[in-house]
Amino acid sequence: MNYLNIINFLQLKSVIIFNIILLILKVLIIGISLLLAVAFLTLAERKVMAAMQLRKGPNIVGPLGLLQPFADGIKLILKELILPSASNKLILLSSPLIVFSLSLFIWIFIPLGYDKVLNDTDLSIFYILATSSLSVYGIIMAGWASNSRYAFLGALRSCAQMISYEVSISLTLISVLLCCGSLNLTDIVLFQHYIWNIIPLFPIAIIFFISSLAETNRPPFDLPEAEGELVAGYSVEFSSVGFALFFIGECANVIAMSTIFTLLFMGGWLSPFGFLNFIPESIWLIIKIILIIFVFLWVRATFPRFRYDQLMFLGWKIFLPISLCYIIILSTIILINIIN
Q1: Exposed, middle or buried: residue 44 (CB in 10 Å: 0-12, 13-18, 19+)?
Q2: pTM of the predicted model, to two decimals?
Q3: Which of 331, 148, 323, 129 is nearest to 231 (CA)?
Q4: pLDDT tens digits along 119-156
Q5: Residue 290 has pLDDT above 90, yes or no
């Protein structure tokens, strides 16, 4: 009997160790893939903007400039790490790590295909909202710990902007959840088997996309990093790896918001209108994400920066009433269908 207990214990222990190793490998694969995607996103952004402005863009380092992101990364890592003498060094060093870690943590709940997610919980939407909202703390810590007026003003701007547009994003998500009847991203994607949510919820999709621009501090809503006013905003006192982590976190959030938009409104990994089903679902998802990212870059090359009062007016006096009206209309339609 003792031998059987020992054998069962060893088997259970081996299963636990195997699951832990498998989880670590999955996390490493997602993390490395995301870092590579961020690296080539910077190259794609410079190439797309160069094409729109009739320039060549990076074309020297490597064939067609493909090695430029790695050269930029090596340059940032090798730069001297400078810490202001009057700053709170512990908080200053931890703030970029918080922003970077949260940009990776959000991918735990994002499905990349059917049954291809690290944690397929029924409350994945709530976890994603909670994780993305925590990045505000990293930014306000960076601005306060720098002991710089420019950095602190940039951090306050960013916090006010992100909190304001999180309200719009949350209300647009409520509209999607009312239609799909689930908080699980996989269920939301499968709900769009016959028609994508972007067709009946087109105004909500536009509000979500514009709010994503503001949430990620992307142009034309890059007011926390307004060079002419605040030098570089909350990251003005950062150099070397600290600045690189902030930059990677911002680019990773762009990819994450593009992926979430694809899952919520464009059918995720589903093929368009049921055609071309022989193409792997991961290919469809990547194509749609690239399309949304291209629109992010297109907006940056096209629109000038908003004034801060215009930014707040758009979020609180236009997006908020429209989102609330859409929720009321959808709730009324659903209630009428239930009654009938």
Answers
A1: middle
A2: 0.88
A3: 148
A4: 777 888 888 888 888 888 888 888 888 888 888 888 88
A5: yes
Give ∠ CA 252-255-260 in degrees, rounded to 5: 125
Looking at residue 262, its amino acid is T
Using alpha carbons, select from 220, 208, 298, 224 the residue that is nearest to residue 260: 208
Residue 150: φ, ψ to 5°:
-65, -45
- Please give the DSSP secondary-structure letter assigned to residue 109: S
Tokens 């680019």: give the residue.
251
* DSSP character string of 26-93: HHHHHHHHHHHHHHHHHHHHHHHHHHHTT---S-SSSGGGTTHHHHHHHHHHHS-----TTS-HHHHH
CA distance 92 to 84: 9
Structure token pair of residue 302: 């096209």
| Residue 252: its H or E element | helix 240-265
* Angle (nearest 5°) at CA 146 between 140 and 150: 80
Q: What is the gyration radius of the CA atoms in the chain, in angstroms?
A: 22
Q: Is 10 helix (H, G, I), strand (E, B) or coil?
A: helix
Q: What is the pLDDT of residue 229?
A: 58
DSSP state of 124: H
Tokens linked to 156: 């306050």
Contacts of 334 (CB under 8 A, 6+ apart): 178
**Pairwise CA distance, residues 166 & 172, whole Å:** 10
Q: Which amino acid is at 130?
A: A
